């Protein structure tokens, strides 16, 4: 029997770290769906970002594209959120994500629309958030290792711009599903957040197996 965990939330909220820890703890497969959008966005930087080109790139995406260099850069993040507003791009990526969610070992997917669009019937839904200031501090710590020209102010501005674009788009906007557990990690250590999420998932898992 498959078991699906949907984790949504804004940039640098902790959802990726929590997802990886959950996958390891429960033996679930993990899909970072942001990587799909980043891979398409990355290609648009050299091939053009018209809706037609971006849609074709999404339709032709391969596993290799997910291993491209620099997918985690600030530039690629902005490119990803720009192409993520194009309905045909999103449609091209739906089937892969839905199939991934159904694997028998269980699956955790993280992104922006997992609990609302990709897996509306997920066993557990979480919306992980934190203040923009805290998220910008975390993201600056990650990005400044590779790019010493980046500034904290620039990272905060980038995060705010991406939040607004992701939450404001017409199709599959970033929003908590009504039945999602809200986890605000602003004042939490990551280990505390992981422990809280493990408890939520375990309770649901035990419930599924007792009926
Ligand atoms: O790691 P971070 O949270 O900064 O970003 P990400 O999860 O890698 O996602 C990059 C961008 O892809 C987001 O800003 C969204 O615009 C888009 N995205 C989306 O639209 N839907 C998803 N399920 C995942 C990502």
**CA-CA gap between termini:** 13 Å
**What are the distinct ligands in this entry?**
cytidine-5'-diphosphate
Global shape: globular
Would you state the CATH class?
A: Alpha Beta
Give the tally of structural domains.
Answer: 1
SSE ordering: EHEHHHHEHEHHEH
Description:
By secondary structure, the protein is of the alpha/beta class. It has one domain: 3-Layer(aba) Sandwich (Rossmann fold). It has nine helices and five strands. The chain has helices at 15-26, 34-47, 51-59, 74-83, 87-101, 114-118, 132-146, 152-168, 190-210, and strands spanning 4-8, 29-32, 107-111, 124-129, 181-184. It has a five-stranded parallel sheet with strand order 2-3-1-4-5, sandwiched between helices. Helix 3 (51-59) runs parallel beside helix 5 (87-101). The protein is globular. It starts with a strand and ends with a helix. The mean pLDDT is 96. Bound molecules: cytidine-5'-diphosphate (CDP). Cytidine-5'-diphosphate binds next to helix 2, helix 4 and helix 8. Cytidine-5'-diphosphate (CDP) binds at residues 11-12, 16, 33-34, 37-38, 77, 80-81, 84, 111-113, 162, 166.
Tell me the layout of helices and strands.
Elements: E1 4-8, H1 15-26, E2 29-32, H2 34-47, H3 51-59, H4 74-83, H5 87-101, E3 107-111, H6 114-118, E4 124-129, H7 132-146, H8 152-168, E5 181-184, H9 190-210
Parallel strand pairs: 1-3, 1-4, 2-3, 4-5
The structure holds cytidine-5'-diphosphate (CDP).
List keywords for this structure.
211 residues; alpha/beta; Rossmann fold; five-stranded parallel beta sheet; 56% helix; globular; binds cytidine-5'-diphosphate
């Amino acid at each position: 029997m498959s078991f699906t965990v949907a984790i949504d939330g804004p940039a640098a909220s902790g959802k990726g770290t929590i997802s990886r820890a959950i996958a390891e703890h429960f033996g679930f497969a993990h899909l970072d769906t942001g990587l799909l959008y980043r891979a398409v966005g990355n290609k648009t930087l050299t091939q053009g970002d018209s809706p037609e080109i971006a849609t074709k790139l999404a339709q032709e995406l391969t596993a290799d594209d997910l291993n491209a260099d620099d997918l985690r850069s600030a530039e690629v993040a902005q490119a990803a959120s720009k192409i993520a507003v194009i309905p045909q791009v999103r449609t091209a990526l739906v089937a892969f994500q839905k199939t991934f969610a159904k694997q028998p070992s269980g699956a955790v997917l993280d992104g922006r629309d997992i609990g609302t669009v990709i897996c509306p019937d997920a066993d557990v839904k979480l919306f992980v958030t934190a203040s923009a200031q805290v998220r910008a501090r975390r993201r600056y710590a990650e990005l400044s290792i590779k790019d010493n020209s980046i500034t904290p102010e620039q990272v905060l501005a980038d995060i705010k711009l991406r939040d607004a674009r992701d939450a404001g788009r017409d199709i599959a906007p970033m929003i908590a599903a009504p039945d999602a557990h809200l986890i605000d990690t602003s004042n939490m250590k990551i280990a505390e957040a992981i422990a809280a999420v493990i408890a939520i998932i375990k309770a649901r898992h035990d419930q599924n197996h007792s009926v």
